[in-house]
Design goal:
The chain has helices at 8-22, 30-48, 53-77, 86-115, 126-134, 138-143. The chain starts with 7 loop residues before the first helix and ends in a 5-residue tail after the last helix. With 148 residues, it is mainly alpha-helical.
């Protein structure tokens, strides 16, 4: 069974609409809005640069991080009044729906990352950067006045 292709534009648009609707009642802090909108801005960057692996990877990481921050925001700021206003219930429902769709979006964004040439395992290339700092060359050792 083949995985259906979902456009990156669709993912960004759906999460943008849900974020706007989630903020229609002022129960979430500004950090929720800034976090989600900044991740969506990275998603727009990934749309604009179709061949960029880095843009899709940063969008994927941002979506994964906002899953955790959304859970913290909901746990801290969810109102537990006996009779909340209807607009609050709609806003909270859209925020929760956005949170539930984020793992699915991460899956599809990861598939796009693979299509653009990304690896299965995300490699931050720490070994190469350490090796380049630790290698001594004859030119480097003569700068110190010593010969190795």
């Amino acid at each position: 069974m083949e995985i259906p292709a979902i456009s990156l534009k669709t993912i960004v648009l759906v999460h943008w609409i849900l974020t706007v609707w989630a903020c229609s009642f002022p129960w979430l802090p500004t950090s929720y809005v800034l976090g989600n909108v900044s991740v969506l801005a990275v998603g727009v960057w990934a749309i604009a640069q179709r061949d960029s692996i880095d843009a899709v990877l940063l969008f994927l990481i941002g979506l994964a991080v906002t899953i955790l921050t959304d859970i913290v925001h909901f746990g801290l700021y969810y109102l537990t009044n006996a009779n909340p206003p209807d607009l609050f219930r709609f806003s909270a429902g859209m925020a929760i729906l956005s949170l539930l769709l984020k793992p699915v979006s991460c899956f599809f964004v990861y598939q796009m990352y693979r299509e653009r040439g990304g690896e299965y395992n995300i490699n931050f290339d720490l070994e190469t950067s350490l090796d380049s700092r630790c290698t001594t060359d004859s030119a480097d050792s003569t700068l110190l006045g010593r010969r190795y």
